[in-house]
Design a protein that fits this description.
By secondary structure, the protein is an alpha/beta fold. The chain has helices at 4-23, 51-62, 74-86, 101-115, 138-166, 178-181, 189-209, 227-230, 234-243, 252-263, and strands at residues 42-46, 66-71, 91-95, 120-123, 169-174, 214-221, 274-277. The two termini are 40 Å apart. Bound molecules: nicotinamide-adenine-dinucleotide.
Length: 284
């Protein structure tokens, strides 16, 4: 509740604004319109059973989107979708390995058959790989690139025809600060390379699909408090804290908030961007 003096001043300001707009011939509505409204949007979130994926699913659902969570782990993805549905969301669990193009295409087909289309794609499925370069086997290199990078190719191939037909779409790829910092504590050469590739693909998609009303953006989280980070030693975590201007881990909800913004109509003019959600870790 505003003090009565402040309320009067605010009302006077709004009246003056209205008068000015009338003078310059533009009308302005003073009725608050909820921002980031995603009702009537259908979202697909890969890695939907993971720390960030679950938070993204919940945040999109809170804004009104129907949310399909896709993950390789059937038990956990079903539990995550059930939790959304218990809270009143329209939710779907899809089990697929994102490195398998045919499995991804079948999962997207299932979603489209159920809901008629897909408006928002969030690629959050990934694996961390810690092998230093001289210990990095060809098999590990290919596994990481297949799950972290080729997965984005597969999901985008599966959704883009639908988005082009709808003349609307939002692609949001979760990359990592490791793409900019050469991995280091936050990942190996394979992980850093896969995430740098995600950024490159995001920009190529942004350019190619902008004329179709489709935006593509990447988010680079810094260290976020999820099971992925929990596997690090106390010493590694301590070194990460020391590097962060904001001296704490980020939360999955803070990454999810950035996803909600990029998924919204309010972000229609933002494409090909790389949004850092990293506590200041990579600021220039
Ligand atoms: N946690 C962090 O600090 C951090 C920092 C930067 C970037 N990221 C990125 O954020 C995203 C989410 O990470 P998280 O911390 O939630 O990790 P997480 O391990 O909690 O979640 C990843 C999810 O991806 C799923 N997954 C793994 N391989 C898969 C496959 N082949 N097919 C389908 N699903 C598969 C897992 O089952 C898991 O549910 C990842 O892309 C990660 O690289 C995380």
């Amino acid at each position: 509740m505003l003090p009565s003096g402040s309320m009067a001043a605010a009302l006077q300001f709004l009246q003056t604004l209205g008068a000015l707009c009338a003078l310059c011939g533009k009308s302005v509505s003073l009725v608050a319109k909820p921002m980031f409204n995603l009702s009537n949007r259908r979202a697909l979130v890969t890695g939907g059973a993971g720390g960030i994926g679950q938070a993204v699913g919940a945040a999109l659902a809170r804004q009104g989107a129907a949310v399909a969570l896709l993950d390789v782990d059937q038990t956990r993805v079903e539990a995550a979708a059930a939790a959304l549905a218990e809270n009143g969301a329209t939710a779907l669990a899809l089990q697929a390995d994102v490195s398998d193009g045919a499995a991804v295409a079948a999962a997207v087909q299932h979603m489209v058959a159920a809901w008629g289309g897909v408006d928002v794609l969030v690629n959050a499925a990934a694996v961390l790989s810690r092998a230093w370069f001289r210990e990095l086997s060809v098999a590990e290199w290919e596994r990481v690139l297949a799950i972290n990078l080729s997965s984005v190719f597969h999901t985008c191939q599966a959704v883009l025809n639908h988005m082009v037909e709808q003349r609307h779409g939002r692609i949001i790829n979760i990359a990592s600060v490791a793409a900019k910092r050469g991995g280091g504590l936050l990942g190996s050469a394979a992980y850093a390379t896969s995430k740098a590739g995600v950024i490159g693909l995001t920009k190529a998609l942004a350019r190619e699909f902008a004329p179709h009303g489709i935006t593509a953006n990447a988010i680079c989280p810094g260290p976020i408090d999820t099971p992925l980070i929990a596997t690090m030693s106390a010493e590694q975590r301590g070194r990460i804290f020391a590097m962060l201007p904001i001296q704490r881990l980020g939360s999955p909800a803070e990454v999810a908030a950035a996803v909600v913004y990029l998924a919204s109509d309010e972000a229609a003019f933002v494409t090909g961007d790389v949004l850092d959600v990293d506590g200041g870790l990579t600021m220039d």
